[in-house]
Design a protein that fits this description.
By secondary structure, the chain is of the alpha/beta class. It has 2 domains: 3-199, Glutaredoxin (3-Layer(aba) Sandwich); 255-294. Helix content is 50%, strand content 11%. The protein has 13 helices and 8 strands. The chain has helices spanning 3-14, 21-27, 56-62, 76-92, 118-132, 146-151, 177-188, 201-209, 212-219, 223-230, 232-242, 253-275, 283-294, and strands at 45-47, 53-55, 66-71, 97-102, 137-140, 158-161, 167-171, 197-198. It has a 6-stranded mixed beta sheet with strand order 5-4-3-6-7-8. The chain has a two-stranded antiparallel sheet with strand order 1-2. A hairpin with a 5-residue loop joins strand 1 and strand 2 (53-55). The longest helix is centred in the last third of the chain and has 23 residues, at 253-275. The protein is globular, with a radius of gyration of 22 Å. It starts with a helix and ends with a helix. The relative contact order is 0.14. Residues 1-6 have low confidence and may be disordered.
Length: 296
Protein backbone atom coordinates (compact mmCIF):
# COMPACT_ATOMS: atom_id res chain seq x y z
CA UNK A 1 0.00 0.00 0.00
CA UNK A 2 1.36 3.42 -0.89
CA UNK A 3 1.97 6.17 1.61
CA UNK A 4 -0.77 8.27 0.02
CA UNK A 5 -3.40 5.53 0.32
CA UNK A 6 -2.27 4.77 3.87
CA UNK A 7 -2.79 8.42 4.77
CA UNK A 8 -6.27 8.38 3.21
CA UNK A 9 -7.22 5.22 5.12
CA UNK A 10 -5.93 6.64 8.40
CA UNK A 11 -7.73 9.91 7.74
CA UNK A 12 -11.00 8.09 7.10
CA UNK A 13 -10.67 6.17 10.37
CA UNK A 14 -9.79 9.41 12.15
CA UNK A 15 -12.98 11.19 11.05
CA UNK A 16 -15.33 9.37 13.40
CA UNK A 17 -19.10 9.71 12.95
CA UNK A 18 -19.51 8.91 16.64
CA UNK A 19 -17.16 7.95 19.48
CA UNK A 20 -16.83 4.25 20.23
CA UNK A 21 -15.67 2.40 23.33
CA UNK A 22 -12.35 1.75 21.58
CA UNK A 23 -11.85 5.44 20.81
CA UNK A 24 -12.73 6.48 24.37
CA UNK A 25 -10.33 3.94 25.87
CA UNK A 26 -7.56 5.11 23.55
CA UNK A 27 -8.19 8.70 24.64
CA UNK A 28 -7.66 7.76 28.29
CA UNK A 29 -4.04 6.66 27.89
CA UNK A 30 -0.86 8.02 26.34
CA UNK A 31 1.40 5.38 24.75
CA UNK A 32 5.06 5.58 25.74
CA UNK A 33 6.09 6.38 22.17
CA UNK A 34 3.84 9.46 21.86
CA UNK A 35 5.45 12.88 21.70
CA UNK A 36 6.46 14.30 25.06
CA UNK A 37 9.07 16.40 26.83
CA UNK A 38 12.37 16.44 24.94
CA UNK A 39 10.83 15.56 21.56
CA UNK A 40 10.82 17.88 18.56
CA UNK A 41 7.40 18.66 17.15
CA UNK A 42 6.61 17.59 13.56
CA UNK A 43 6.57 20.08 10.70
CA UNK A 44 3.48 22.26 10.97
CA UNK A 45 1.84 24.48 8.36
CA UNK A 46 -1.80 25.18 9.19
CA UNK A 47 -4.20 27.99 8.26
CA UNK A 48 -5.72 30.10 11.01
CA UNK A 49 -9.24 31.46 11.28
CA UNK A 50 -7.97 35.00 10.66
CA UNK A 51 -6.23 34.18 7.38
CA UNK A 52 -2.70 33.67 8.74
CA UNK A 53 -0.55 30.56 9.04
CA UNK A 54 0.74 28.67 12.03
CA UNK A 55 4.01 27.16 10.83
CA UNK A 56 7.15 25.58 12.22
CA UNK A 57 9.16 28.54 10.92
CA UNK A 58 6.86 31.01 12.68
CA UNK A 59 7.63 29.38 16.03
CA UNK A 60 11.30 30.30 15.81
CA UNK A 61 10.56 33.69 14.25
CA UNK A 62 8.16 34.65 17.05
CA UNK A 63 10.71 33.74 19.72
CA UNK A 64 8.20 33.05 22.48
CA UNK A 65 7.41 29.66 24.00
CA UNK A 66 4.04 28.30 22.84
CA UNK A 67 1.10 26.87 24.72
CA UNK A 68 -0.42 24.57 22.10
CA UNK A 69 -3.89 23.18 22.83
CA UNK A 70 -5.90 20.73 20.74
CA UNK A 71 -9.68 20.98 20.91
CA UNK A 72 -13.04 21.09 19.20
CA UNK A 73 -16.48 22.65 19.55
CA UNK A 74 -18.14 19.40 20.71
CA UNK A 75 -15.44 18.41 23.18
CA UNK A 76 -16.52 18.81 26.83
CA UNK A 77 -12.86 18.97 27.93
CA UNK A 78 -12.22 21.89 25.57
CA UNK A 79 -15.42 23.53 26.81
CA UNK A 80 -14.28 23.22 30.42
CA UNK A 81 -10.82 24.59 29.58
CA UNK A 82 -11.97 27.67 27.68
CA UNK A 83 -12.43 30.13 30.52
CA UNK A 84 -9.15 29.11 32.13
CA UNK A 85 -7.24 29.50 28.85
CA UNK A 86 -8.62 33.02 28.50
CA UNK A 87 -7.43 33.82 32.02
CA UNK A 88 -3.96 32.40 31.34
CA UNK A 89 -3.74 34.41 28.12
CA UNK A 90 -4.65 37.63 29.93
CA UNK A 91 -1.80 37.06 32.38
CA UNK A 92 0.89 35.53 30.19
CA UNK A 93 -0.04 36.33 26.59
CA UNK A 94 2.69 38.94 26.24
CA UNK A 95 5.46 36.38 26.85
CA UNK A 96 3.75 33.13 25.78
CA UNK A 97 2.23 32.50 22.35
CA UNK A 98 -1.17 30.81 22.65
CA UNK A 99 -2.41 28.58 19.82
CA UNK A 100 -5.47 26.33 19.75
CA UNK A 101 -5.58 23.75 16.95
CA UNK A 102 -9.10 22.81 15.92
CA UNK A 103 -9.24 19.05 15.36
CA UNK A 104 -11.93 16.44 14.65
CA UNK A 105 -15.20 16.84 16.51
CA UNK A 106 -15.01 14.71 19.65
CA UNK A 107 -18.77 14.16 19.92
CA UNK A 108 -20.46 14.98 16.61
CA UNK A 109 -24.24 15.19 16.46
CA UNK A 110 -27.06 16.27 14.19
CA UNK A 111 -26.23 19.99 14.46
CA UNK A 112 -22.43 19.69 14.35
CA UNK A 113 -21.56 16.59 12.32
CA UNK A 114 -18.00 15.48 11.65
CA UNK A 115 -16.51 17.75 8.93
CA UNK A 116 -15.79 16.01 5.63
CA UNK A 117 -14.12 18.95 3.86
CA UNK A 118 -11.73 21.62 5.09
CA UNK A 119 -14.32 24.39 4.66
CA UNK A 120 -16.59 22.73 7.21
CA UNK A 121 -13.69 22.32 9.60
CA UNK A 122 -12.74 25.99 9.20
CA UNK A 123 -16.36 26.95 9.91
CA UNK A 124 -16.30 24.97 13.16
CA UNK A 125 -12.96 26.53 14.11
CA UNK A 126 -14.35 30.04 13.67
CA UNK A 127 -17.34 29.10 15.79
CA UNK A 128 -15.00 27.66 18.44
CA UNK A 129 -13.02 30.90 18.54
CA UNK A 130 -16.18 33.02 18.72
CA UNK A 131 -17.88 30.83 21.31
CA UNK A 132 -15.00 31.13 23.76
CA UNK A 133 -13.93 34.62 22.74
CA UNK A 134 -10.35 33.48 22.20
CA UNK A 135 -8.16 36.54 21.61
CA UNK A 136 -5.37 34.38 20.20
CA UNK A 137 -4.71 32.15 17.20
CA UNK A 138 -6.98 29.26 16.33
CA UNK A 139 -5.38 27.08 13.66
CA UNK A 140 -7.16 24.38 11.67
CA UNK A 141 -5.71 20.91 11.16
CA UNK A 142 -6.24 19.26 7.77
CA UNK A 143 -9.21 17.02 7.17
CA UNK A 144 -7.09 13.90 7.79
CA UNK A 145 -5.94 15.18 11.20
CA UNK A 146 -2.27 14.94 10.20
CA UNK A 147 -0.90 17.20 12.95
CA UNK A 148 -3.34 15.93 15.55
CA UNK A 149 -2.46 12.29 14.84
CA UNK A 150 1.26 13.10 14.97
CA UNK A 151 0.76 14.30 18.55
CA UNK A 152 -1.49 11.37 19.52
CA UNK A 153 -5.07 12.36 18.53
CA UNK A 154 -6.43 12.76 22.05
CA UNK A 155 -9.46 15.08 22.26
CA UNK A 156 -7.90 18.01 24.11
CA UNK A 157 -4.27 17.80 25.25
CA UNK A 158 -1.93 20.73 25.90
CA UNK A 159 1.78 21.17 25.20
CA UNK A 160 4.35 23.82 26.03
CA UNK A 161 6.92 24.12 23.26
CA UNK A 162 10.11 26.17 23.36
CA UNK A 163 11.09 28.51 20.47
CA UNK A 164 13.34 25.82 18.98
CA UNK A 165 10.34 23.49 18.56
CA UNK A 166 11.10 21.15 21.48
CA UNK A 167 8.30 20.03 23.79
CA UNK A 168 9.04 20.87 27.43
CA UNK A 169 5.70 19.94 29.02
CA UNK A 170 2.65 17.82 28.19
CA UNK A 171 -0.76 17.77 29.86
CA UNK A 172 -3.02 14.86 28.93
CA UNK A 173 -6.05 17.13 29.45
CA UNK A 174 -6.22 20.85 28.69
CA UNK A 175 -8.66 21.55 31.54
CA UNK A 176 -6.11 20.68 34.25
CA UNK A 177 -5.12 24.32 34.33
CA UNK A 178 -3.21 24.58 37.60
CA UNK A 179 -0.28 22.35 36.50
CA UNK A 180 -0.29 24.07 33.10
CA UNK A 181 0.07 27.46 34.75
CA UNK A 182 2.80 26.12 37.03
CA UNK A 183 4.72 24.91 33.97
CA UNK A 184 4.20 28.23 32.15
CA UNK A 185 5.61 30.17 35.09
CA UNK A 186 8.66 27.92 35.20
CA UNK A 187 9.30 28.38 31.47
CA UNK A 188 8.89 32.16 31.75
CA UNK A 189 11.45 32.12 34.58
CA UNK A 190 13.88 30.18 32.39
CA UNK A 191 13.50 26.89 34.27
CA UNK A 192 12.36 23.46 33.20
CA UNK A 193 8.90 22.61 34.59
CA UNK A 194 9.11 20.53 37.77
CA UNK A 195 6.77 18.04 36.10
CA UNK A 196 7.32 17.25 32.44
CA UNK A 197 3.94 15.54 32.07
CA UNK A 198 0.61 15.58 33.89
CA UNK A 199 -2.31 13.16 33.69
CA UNK A 200 -4.94 13.62 36.42
CA UNK A 201 -7.63 11.91 34.34
CA UNK A 202 -10.18 11.53 37.15
CA UNK A 203 -9.96 15.22 37.96
CA UNK A 204 -10.25 16.15 34.29
CA UNK A 205 -13.36 14.00 33.81
CA UNK A 206 -15.07 15.43 36.89
CA UNK A 207 -14.38 18.96 35.66
CA UNK A 208 -15.48 18.02 32.15
CA UNK A 209 -18.83 16.66 33.34
CA UNK A 210 -19.97 20.07 34.54
CA UNK A 211 -19.58 21.55 31.04
CA UNK A 212 -20.81 18.61 28.97
CA UNK A 213 -24.34 19.95 28.62
CA UNK A 214 -22.97 22.91 26.64
CA UNK A 215 -20.72 20.92 24.29
CA UNK A 216 -23.12 18.01 23.73
CA UNK A 217 -26.08 20.37 23.48
CA UNK A 218 -24.31 22.30 20.72
CA UNK A 219 -23.53 19.04 18.91
CA UNK A 220 -27.23 18.24 18.76
CA UNK A 221 -29.33 15.11 18.65
CA UNK A 222 -27.40 11.87 19.03
CA UNK A 223 -24.32 13.21 20.82
CA UNK A 224 -25.42 12.38 24.37
CA UNK A 225 -26.91 9.04 23.25
CA UNK A 226 -23.60 8.07 21.63
CA UNK A 227 -21.76 9.09 24.81
CA UNK A 228 -23.93 6.67 26.82
CA UNK A 229 -23.25 3.89 24.34
CA UNK A 230 -19.49 4.42 24.24
CA UNK A 231 -18.72 5.30 27.87
CA UNK A 232 -21.58 4.66 30.33
CA UNK A 233 -19.55 5.55 33.47
CA UNK A 234 -18.56 8.95 32.07
CA UNK A 235 -22.10 9.53 30.83
CA UNK A 236 -23.42 8.67 34.30
CA UNK A 237 -21.04 11.25 35.77
CA UNK A 238 -22.50 13.81 33.35
CA UNK A 239 -26.01 12.84 34.44
CA UNK A 240 -25.13 13.33 38.12
CA UNK A 241 -23.51 16.69 37.35
CA UNK A 242 -26.67 17.80 35.55
CA UNK A 243 -28.53 17.58 38.87
CA UNK A 244 -26.57 20.66 39.93
CA UNK A 245 -27.34 22.89 36.94
CA UNK A 246 -28.55 25.54 39.36
CA UNK A 247 -24.87 26.05 40.27
CA UNK A 248 -22.28 27.72 38.02
CA UNK A 249 -20.35 25.09 36.05
CA UNK A 250 -17.11 25.80 37.89
CA UNK A 251 -18.78 24.99 41.25
CA UNK A 252 -20.34 21.65 40.30
CA UNK A 253 -17.29 19.41 40.80
CA UNK A 254 -17.49 18.93 44.59
CA UNK A 255 -21.23 18.15 44.79
CA UNK A 256 -20.92 15.87 41.75
CA UNK A 257 -18.21 13.82 43.47
CA UNK A 258 -20.20 13.67 46.72
CA UNK A 259 -23.41 12.63 44.98
CA UNK A 260 -21.63 10.04 42.82
CA UNK A 261 -20.04 8.45 45.89
CA UNK A 262 -23.37 8.46 47.74
CA UNK A 263 -25.15 6.81 44.82
CA UNK A 264 -22.37 4.25 44.48
CA UNK A 265 -22.41 3.37 48.18
CA UNK A 266 -26.20 3.11 48.19
CA UNK A 267 -26.21 0.87 45.12
CA UNK A 268 -23.45 -1.34 46.53
CA UNK A 269 -25.27 -1.67 49.86
CA UNK A 270 -28.51 -2.58 48.08
CA UNK A 271 -26.79 -5.25 46.01
CA UNK A 272 -25.10 -6.63 49.12
CA UNK A 273 -28.44 -6.94 50.91
CA UNK A 274 -30.09 -8.54 47.87
CA UNK A 275 -27.36 -11.08 47.26
CA UNK A 276 -26.53 -12.02 50.84
CA UNK A 277 -28.45 -15.03 52.26
CA UNK A 278 -30.97 -13.94 54.88
CA UNK A 279 -29.33 -15.95 57.67
CA UNK A 280 -26.01 -14.17 56.97
CA UNK A 281 -27.42 -10.67 57.40
CA UNK A 282 -26.34 -9.24 60.78
CA UNK A 283 -29.15 -9.33 63.34
CA UNK A 284 -28.89 -5.59 63.96
CA UNK A 285 -29.48 -4.85 60.25
CA UNK A 286 -32.62 -7.02 60.25
CA UNK A 287 -33.87 -5.27 63.38
CA UNK A 288 -33.40 -1.85 61.78
CA UNK A 289 -35.20 -2.95 58.59
CA UNK A 290 -38.08 -4.41 60.61
CA UNK A 291 -38.34 -1.23 62.68
CA UNK A 292 -38.43 0.94 59.56
CA UNK A 293 -41.14 -1.23 57.98
CA UNK A 294 -43.25 -1.13 61.16
CA UNK A 295 -43.32 2.67 60.94
CA UNK A 296 -44.59 2.71 57.37
Amino acid sequence: MTTASTTLDEGARYRIDRPTFKVIMRDLRIPSNDLGAGDAIPDVDLPTTEGGRFTTDSIAADGRPILLVFGSLTCPVTESAGRGLLDLHRRYGDVIRFVVVNVREAHPGADIPQPRVIGEKMHNARNLKGHHGFAFEVAVDDIHGSVHRAFGARPSSAYIIDPSGIIVFRAHWSNILEPIEEALRAVIAGRAPSRAKVGQTARALIRMAAYSDVALGAAGRGALRDFWRAAPPAAALIAVSSLFRFLPSERRAAPTVTATLAIGITAATGMWLLLMPLHAVPRRVLQLVALRMSRC
